[in-house]
Amino acid sequence: MQHYDTIIVGGGAGGLELAAKLGRKYGRGAGKDKILLIDRAIVHIWKPTLHEVAVGTLNPQQEGILYTTVARRNHFSFMLGELVAFNPQERTLTVGELRDEDGSILVPKSTISFNKCVLAIGSGSNSFGTKGFEHAFTLENAQDAQRFQKYLFGRFLQTSHSDKRCLNVAIIGGGATGVELAAEMTEAYHEMHQIIGSANRFRIEINLIEATSRILPAMPEEVSAQSMPILERKQVSVHTNTRVLEITEQSVITDKGEIAADIVIWTAGIKAADRNTQFHLQTNAINQFIINEKLETSAKFVYALGDCASLTLADGSRIPATAQAAHQQASYLAKLLWAAANERAFDETFVYQDSGALVSLGFDKGVGRVAANPKKQENTIFLKGLLAKWAHMSLHLLHHFEVLGLRKTTVLALARLAQKRVSGRLKLH
Ligand SMILES: Cc1cc2nc3c(=O)[nH]c(=O)nc-3n(C[C@H](O)[C@H](O)[C@H](O)COP(=O)(O)OP(=O)(O)OC[C@H]3O[C@@H](n4cnc5c(N)ncnc54)[C@H](O)[C@@H]3O)c2cc1C
Hints:
The chain is built from 10 helices and 26 strands. The strands form 8 sheets. Strands 1, 2, 5, 6, 7, 10 and 22 form a 7-stranded mixed beta sheet that branches. Strands 12-19-13-14-15 form a 5-stranded parallel beta sheet. The chain has a 3-stranded antiparallel beta sheet with strand order 16-17-18, with no helix packed on it. By secondary structure, it is α/β, with parallel strands linked by helices. Strand 8 (98-99) and strand 9 (105-107) form a beta hairpin. The site of flavin-adenine dinucleotide (FAD) has 32 residues, from strand 2, helix 2, helix 6 and helix 8. Flavin-adenine dinucleotide binds next to strand 2, helix 2, helix 6 and helix 8. Belongs to the NADH dehydrogenase family. Keywords: FAD, Flavoprotein, Oxidoreductase. InterPro entries: FAD/NAD-bd_sf, FAD/NAD-binding_dom, NADH-Q_oxidoreductase.
């Protein structure tokens, strides 16, 4: 049986940063034998950009980072595969077999032992048992986003040649994902109009449906209020206090009436994988692993971070499921695990520092409130327009910087800019 000192399962916003940080600490000599990162995808895409992939304004082939490249650069090992079983008592985990497209087995199922393990496997969508949920698209991973992008452009083309000449879109969930997706989609639509002839012009009606009294309910009220006029200018119809009862093939039925929808996207709420409940660890109602202030699960030497974990603070509040929280937890665990590797005591507990909330509203707009100094929460500044958009983009660059370093991040950012200049903003294939 293979053995690693530390296994990190899930190379997303938190897990990949943790693997890179720890690998660099161990260095060229030891890192590869001590640390293993497992992910079911071969390419990493930072999840907060999935709405851009979904409408074709971000090219995943260009933006995606190969795990093998990051592993080599940061001195850790990488294994492609899906976690299917977990035994915290024996400290082993099982990675499912890998199959080719024709169904033949490429890599058999394997069990690996560890001293310490970090679960960073993210989350999926919470349907809340809504009838007809299967008619909606979700944005849980890059494949979902690419599948949606293909479908969206198909519908753009179809509508431009139809008698109806109107595409009805319903986005369910007015959190950051839904709001950012609505704004980005209007930009993709306008780009599309630059490409197609005036004879084929069509209308798009985007309905953003939110059950609570305002969009962006998890963000400060001011961010929500300032986002509304921007969405209205983009002609997004916002329906707050509106509960979705059922999704059909052509519409969304709400408690306020029926909304026509050729395309429905579900962005309301998260839920971790059902399989998490079979891993012999304590989980909550949405299958997240319950962790303590040292990010340890109910089993010793097994930690969890990010969207798949639930940490309730002394005041009863919960750490939000955001990339910001996953990033902070990865930094904390890198310190904790490095201290353990050196047999040093580590008494610090995880302290979440809210650095603010930013929302991207298309190519050149954003809104947000950020902490000038996250240690002094009262000292915050409000950002709007291009400045807020840049601040939002800088979070993505920061993530790349954590895993690729400054030089490669700069090259990647410049390459992305150059590509857009040459090929246009929309990926149409
Ligand atoms: C469209 C969109 C916009 C967002 N915008 C923002 C934003 O502006 N700001 C913000 O802070 N947050 C934002 N978020 C939320 C943010 O993306 C998540 O909170 C964050 O990615 C969680 O990080 P994570 O490391 O826990 O999981 P993820 O980043 O989801 O990574 C999980 C990883 O685990 C892998 N995995 C899953 N299951 C298995 C398995 N069984 N075996 C092996 N590998 C597995 C996956 O392939 C993936 O690589 C957004 C989310 C979306 C969808």
